[in-house]
Design brief:
It is a single chain. 36% of the residues lie in helices and 16% in strands. The chain is α+β, with helices and mostly antiparallel strands. Helix 2 crosses helix 3. The longest helix is centred in the middle third of the chain and has 19 residues, at 108-126. The protein is elongated, with a radius of gyration of 19 Å.
């Protein structure tokens, strides 16, 4: 759930913020933009209800204003790696296929990866290198499925240990 606050209504100095744990199994954020701030709350947990009231309370606490407009909510689809599409000539990608990662709710990266996988599967099928478009796509998606499985493990570990090692992990640099 997210909304916008115009700078004219803000009483605090702004920085980009991720506030992990503000919402159970999720986080809140501030993203300063050119003429407004994007304020939002996220959870991967379907039992946690997000509300405009909670969003406004977060904005008021962090930036001194609850004058949000253009408040919108977006359901994020997870779990696509756990079921294979049953149509031979239809390939779903990105959020439509449930390929958002649950740790942070990010979906653009996996939308691009699954789009490329779909294109590769179509080319392989059209060139006679695969007997089934659906199975060719599944094979192309294996690296993405592995990433999603890792995110699922990280999500459970991170959010269940947020007050201890999960929070400390935020301060660790990530290297290849």
């Amino acid at each position: 759930l997210e909304g916008l606050v115009d700078y004219a209504n803000i009483q605090a100095e702004l920085i980009t913020e991720f506030f992990f744990g503000y919402v159970k199994n999720g986080y809140a954020w501030l993203f300063p933009k050119r003429d407004h701030v994007n304020v939002g709350i996220y959870t991967w947990d379907g039992s946690v209800k997000l509300s405009k009231q909670r969003l406004r309370a977060y904005a008021l606490n962090r930036i001194g204003s609850d004058k949000l407009h253009h408040i919108v909510g977006f359901p994020i689809e997870f779990g696509g790696r756990n079921h294979l599409q049953n149509r031979e000539r239809v390939l779903l990608v990105g959020d439509a296929a449930g390929f958002a990662e649950p740790l942070l709710g990010e979906g653009i990266h996996n939308a691009l990866k699954s789009g490329r996988a779909a294109a590769s599967a179509i080319i392989a099928f059209d060139n006679g290198q695969a007997d089934s478009l659906r199975l060719a796509y599944k094979k192309q998606l294996e690296p993405l499925f592995n990433d999603l499985a890792r995110c699922e493990v990280l999500k459970r570990f991170f959010y269940s240990n947020l007050n201890g090692i999960g929070f400390a992990a935020l301060n660790c640099p990530i290297s290849k």
